[in-house]
Amino acid sequence: MGVAQDMDVLIDLAERLRSRQDIGFLFVGRGSDAQRLRVDAKARGLDNVVFHDEIDPSEIPACTPNAMSASSH
Fold this sequence. Notes:
This protein is α+β, with helices and mostly antiparallel strands. The protein contains 3 helices and 2 strands. The longest helix has 10 residues, at 34-43. The protein is globular.
């Protein structure tokens, strides 16, 4: 998660959609902005956002929309 990905847009979207219990945001990776994004999401009180460091490529299929909604609430 770095400057090139402009992840702030997704944090803003998560804030706008915070009342939707069926939508969650999973951020995976480290990158130059990861810590700042974590702090920003926490400061905004976003409980619909989950951060994980890098994962093994074999774990990627488990990151489906159903898995996300289960892990973010």
